[in-house]
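Structure ticket #2291
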Amino acid sequence: MACIARVPLVSNNFLGQTSEFGAQKNTVSKINTAIQAKVEFYGPDRVKWLGPYSSGAVPSYLTGEFPGDYGWDTAGLSADPETFKAYRETELIHARWAMLGTLGCLGPEIGASTDNVPWFKAGATIFSDDGINYLGNSNIIHAQSILAVLGCQVVLMGLVEAYRLNGGPAGEVTDPLYPGAAFDPLGLADDPDTFAELKIKEIKNGRLAMFSMFGYYVQALVTREGPFQNWKDHVSNPMINNAGKYMASAYCDFDPLAPASICS
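Resolution: structure written out below.
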């Protein structure tokens, strides 16, 4: 009976040790992944833009200190340290806005509550009789004054930027590009190795988003439709609905000297 009574205790102890070992294994795996990313994307042994043929093609001032530095600067735009710093800040801020913008442009066109309006026409709805209702609900945000919207944006963005650069009641800022504190309420950047990996992911996704926004602009000019509608048209008939369909019409729309034989 004594042996039988001891069996659950041994079982629980074993399960507890197994769970603890599993948690330790996951932690070690995450640490190894973060360290591997840090070695791969930072320092002299990082991945470079020409891969194995990058020897001699990387400027000496690109040392791999910053995230997303693949050693490519054929125009020498970052040779001056102060210029490099300014360009880095400009790129990162634009990248963050682009990531927000790509989603913001898709939202009104996908949502039925916003009448599937494309992004380049969404702002004009503020001049309609009903104004702009966020997500189609006037109880969330109901805007009818462009001056009030502009004023709120200037004040709110001015306060955020002032805090990002100078700090404030919510905490001091040591790095304006990565202020942390109130800007990181989830503590995602508390671990230095994880933080280094997140910087890489941010700049890579941000660069892709900037290209995406450029694509949105071109699509709007050429097709007069939003990106979601363009995607739906393309997947419905890829052989017909592609860039070739709009080449002639785009040429006629934007070239005043286009021959009538093509554009008529």
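Closing remark: DSSP finds eight helices and two strands in the chain.
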